[in-house]
Structure prediction request, 98 residues.
Amino acid sequence: MTRSDLVDELAARFAQLTQRDAELAVKTILDAVSDALVSGQRIEIRGFGSFSVTHRPPRMGRNPRTGEAVPIPQKRVPHFKPGKALREAVDQGASPQP
Prediction:
């Protein structure tokens, strides 16, 4: 599912929302999630999952072409952990129940 598919789904489910309003709602939510992760906050959506930032320490890697050792710097990466309801729904092939 792409961002535009999500906007279309939201507009289809809620007749009172125009396409433009649905697009603004999706953009606002995704921007809020991004901003929170950039600032290092954890986001938890009950029944769906949680987003957090994990730290990867610096390490030595290898250039696959030459075999030369290459230093890889530390970095912060986003991490998603699905909630129990989402894990069970995916396992059963059904949509999650609230």
About this structure: The chain has three helices and five strands. The longest strand covers residues 49-56.
